[in-house]
């Protein structure tokens, strides 16, 4: 994940013309397509402009001080040896040139103004930086006592050239692990998936991997930050569809005390956990989430939450740090509302083909998991 310093170094190299042509073109495409990156670049420009102005003021001030020092030195030379025969120094009349007189008047007239301007510039720099951090913090939900569950894995070491080619689609993505991973599951048979928004946040590219280790490229289609939902689409030409989904999506609200379970990828193998629906509201009473008594771990984010009948009732999101086995999941009704809204916006011919039947009802838990596991995936995030 690029730090603030990394972004500023990249933007500075771009402004100085130090990027090669592919890297420069790639950055320009990203700036045009990513509003968040464009905002970050605008902030860099503001800070850089302020710093340049401050630097120019300091340079002018140093030059004026140097001129004043030269004038003082010349006057000191003139005064040496100018004494009367008594040996006492006279009070000489100092003759200065017209140019020196103008410089003196300029310095005396603008010294206070320049000092104030320099102080204002320093304050502007720090105010801008603090304002940026305050604005970013204000855009994030309060997560005191709450932790999201994407899993950080081994960082990929890629050179700038290799990253540029991969993002341009000119080279196969590496088969190593990405920086973060979470869980996702099939939404439709034709290649749409669901995961948590925080899993893919900041991603440059995504890979979807099933239990058979087959991998596909994916791209975000829509994100609902408030409800921590993201819809992805597989864009790999070798993808032939998921087949008929065995579960259905519940549009109503689940009942308190229902037995629920999830499967996901907090590690390389698929992991099952079960529990009960503890509350019909989430962290700090958020009505868009359930609280569940399931011990979830980093990597479970984005995984499906199902009831005993195999209805998908939620999407695993996070857990409460100070309470054992207190996890949270976005309600499936909010996911269905999102899908309906996207279908309506795209037109009747572009609606999502949601599963209508439920093949899990009436099966034992192991049988349900065997049918379900081929539709749950690792979401690997590359930054």
TrEMBL record:
Q: What is this protein called?
A: Trypsin-like peptidase domain-containing protein
Query: What is the phylogenetic placement of the source species in the record?
Result: Bacteria, Pseudomonadati, Bacteroidota, Cytophagia, Cytophagales
Q: Where are the transmembrane segments?
A: 112-135
One annotated GO molecular function: serine-type endopeptidase activity
Flavoprotein found in the keyword field? no
- Looking at the record's lineage, which domain of life comes first? Bacteria
Q: Kindly state which keywords UniProt assigns to this record, in alphabetical order.
A: Membrane, Transmembrane, Transmembrane helix
* GO biological process, alphabetically ordered: proteolysis
InterPro entries the record matches: Peptidase_S1_PA, Peptidase_S1C
**UniProt key word Membrane:** yes
């Amino acid at each position: 994940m690029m730090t603030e310093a990394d972004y500023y170094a990249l933007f500075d190299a771009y402004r100085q013309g130090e990027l090669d042509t592919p890297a420069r073109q790639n950055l320009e495409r990203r700036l045009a397509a990513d509003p968040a990156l464009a905002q970050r670049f605008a902030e860099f420009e503001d800070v850089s402009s302020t710093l340049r102005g401050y630097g120019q003021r300091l340079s002018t001030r140093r030059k004026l001080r140097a001129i004043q020092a030269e004038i003082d030195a010349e006057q000191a030379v003139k005064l040496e040896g100018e004494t009367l025969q008594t040996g006492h120094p006279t009070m000489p009349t100092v003759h200065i040139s017209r140019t020196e007189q103008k410089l003196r008047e300029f310095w005396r007239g603008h010294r206070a103004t320049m000092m104030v301007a320099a102080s204002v510039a320093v304050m502007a720099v720090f105010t801008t930086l603090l304002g940026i951090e305050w604005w970013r913090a204000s855009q994030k939900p309060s997560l005191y006592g709450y932790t999201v569950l994407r899993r950080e894995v081994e960082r990929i070491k890629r050179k700038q050239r290799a990253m540029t080619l991969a993002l341009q689609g000119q080279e196969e993505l590496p088969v190593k692990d990405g920086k973060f991973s979470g869980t996702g599951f099939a939404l439709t048979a034709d290649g749409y998936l669901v995961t948590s928004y925080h899993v893919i946040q900041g991603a440059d590219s995504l890979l979807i991997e099933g239990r058979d280790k087959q991998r596909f490229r994916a791209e975000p289609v829509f994100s609902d930050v408030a409800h921590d939902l993201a819809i992805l689409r597989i864009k790999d030409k070798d993808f032939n569809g998921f087949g008929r989904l065995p579960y259905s999506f519940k549009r109503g609200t689940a009942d308190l005390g229902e037995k629920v379970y999830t499967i996901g990828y907090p590690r390389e193998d698929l992991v099952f956990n079960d529990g009960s629906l503890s509350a019909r509201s989430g962290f700090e009473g958020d009505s868009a989430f359930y609280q569940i008594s399931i011990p979830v771990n980093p990597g479970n984010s984005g995984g499906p939450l199902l009831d005993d009948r195999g209805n998908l009732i939620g999407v695993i999101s996070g857990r409460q740090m100070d309470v054992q086995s207190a996890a949270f999941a976005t309600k499936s009704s909010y996911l269905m509302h999102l899908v309906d809204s996207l279908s309506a916006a795209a037109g009747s011919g572009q609606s999502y083909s949601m599963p209508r039947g439920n093949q899990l009802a009436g099966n034992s838990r192991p049988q349900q998991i065997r049918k379900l596991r081929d539709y749950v995936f690792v979401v690997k995030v590359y930054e």
